[in-house]
C-alpha cells in the first residue's frame, strides 16, 4: 500500500531554498585536520568555565577570521544578464540545525552576524539560543513561519524575490555556511548552502599521522568545502581551506 501525502508545510522553506541553490556551480574539495589542540582547549574550557564549547563554535570562530582576509570569497552573486557581486565588510556564518516543527524533522538555519568580531563564548551563546529554544520561540523564524503557510509555488517565488536583494540576502543566508554531521559515523559530506563557500564537518576519529618524521595517533576530522566556481577559482579555494586547517591546528583565540 502506498500513501499519497501532501507536501509538509514544515518543509516548504527547504524546498524553496534548494530550488534557489540550483544556480550554484559547485566544486568540491576537502582536507584532514588534526584536532588535537581544539580537543584540548575544549576540555580546558569545560574545566575553567564549566561549559564545553562545541566543535562548530571553534570552526566558525576560525573560519570567519580567515574569510575576513578573502573579500572575493565573502561575496554574494546575483546572476542573470547583468551579474553583480556584493562584497561584505563583515563575515556572517549560517549553520544548520536538526530540529523538529511539531512532529516533522527539518533542517533550520541559525545565523551569527559579524562572526569575525565575536568571541568564542559569544558564538556559543548564539548557537545555544537556536538549539535550546523551540521553533515557535525563536523570533528570527517569524518570516519563515509565514512562508510555510503559503502555497508551495508562491513560497518559492517570494523566497527567490527576497534573495534577489543582495543586501537582504546576507541577513538571511550569511556569507558562508557550515553543517556538521560529526555526531554520526560520517567522514565527509558536501552540500550547497546558498553562499559562495559551504563547509561540512565530519566525525573526529583516531588516525595514524606523521609528525616530525614519527608516526603518531591523532584525532583527525575531515573538513569538506563546496565553493561556487562562478565567484572564485580553485587556487583561492585551496588557499582558504588550507588557511582554515592551519588556524584550527594552531588555534589561538
UniProtKB/TrEMBL annotation:
It comes from the Bacteria. Keywords: Acyltransferase, Transferase. It holds the Pfam family 2-oxoacid_dh. It is an enzyme of class 2 (transferase). GO terms for cellular component: cytoplasm. This is Catalytic domain of components of various dehydrogenase complexes. GO terms for molecular function: acetyltransferase activity; dihydrolipoyllysine-residue succinyltransferase activity; lipoic acid binding. Its EC number is 2.3.1.61. Its cofactor is (R)-lipoate. InterPro entries: 2-oxoacid_DH_actylTfrase, 2-oxoacid_DH_E2_comp, CAT-like_dom_sf. The keyword Transferase applies. Residues 10-127, 173-251 form the 2-oxoacid dehydrogenase acyltransferase catalytic domain.
Amino acid at each position: 500500500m502506498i500513501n499519497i501525502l501532501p507536501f509538509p508545510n514544515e518543509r516548504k522553506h527547504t524546498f524553496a531554498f534548494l530550488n534557489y541553490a540550483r544556480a550554484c556551480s559547485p566544486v568540491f574539495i576537502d582536507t584532514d585536520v588534526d584536532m588535537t589542540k581544539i580537543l584540548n582547549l575544549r576540555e580546558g574550557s569545560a574545566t575553567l568555565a564549566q561549559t564545553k564549547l562545541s566543535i562548530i563554535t571553534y570552526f566558525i570562530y576560525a573560519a570567519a577570521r580567515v574569510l575576513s582576509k578573502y573579500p572575493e570569497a565573502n561575496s554574494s552573486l546575483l546572476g542573470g544578464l547583468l551579474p553583480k557581486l556584493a562584497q561584505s565588510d563583515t563575515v556572517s556564518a549560517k549553520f544548520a540545525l536538526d530540529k523538529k516543527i511539531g512532529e516533522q524533522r527539518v533542517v533550520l538555519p541559525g545565523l551569527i552576524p559579524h562572526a569575525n568580531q565575536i568571541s568564542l563564548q559569544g558564538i556559543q551563546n548564539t548557537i545555544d539560543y537556536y538549539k535550546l529554544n523551540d521553533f515557535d520561540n525563536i523570533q528570527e523564524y517569524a518570516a519563515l513561519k509565514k512562508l510555510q503557510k503559503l502555497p508551495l509555488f508562491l513560497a518559492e517565488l517570494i523566497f527567490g524575490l527576497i534573495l534577489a536583494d543582495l543586501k537582504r540576502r546576507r541577513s538571511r543566508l550569511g556569507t558562508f555556511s557550515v553543517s556538521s554531521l560529526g555526531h554520526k559515523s560520517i567522514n565527509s559530506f558536501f552540500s550547497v548552502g546558498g553562499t559562495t563557500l559551504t563547509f561540512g564537518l565530519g566525525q573526529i576519529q583516531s588516525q595514524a599521522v606523521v609528525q616530525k618524521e614519527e608516526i603518531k595517533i591523532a584525532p583527525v576530522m575531515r573538513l569538506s568545502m563546496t565553493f561556487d566556481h562562478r565567484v572564485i577559482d580553485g587556487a583561492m579555494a585551496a588557499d582558504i581551506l588550507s588557511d582554515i586547517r592551519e588556524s584550527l591546528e594552531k588555534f589561538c583565540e
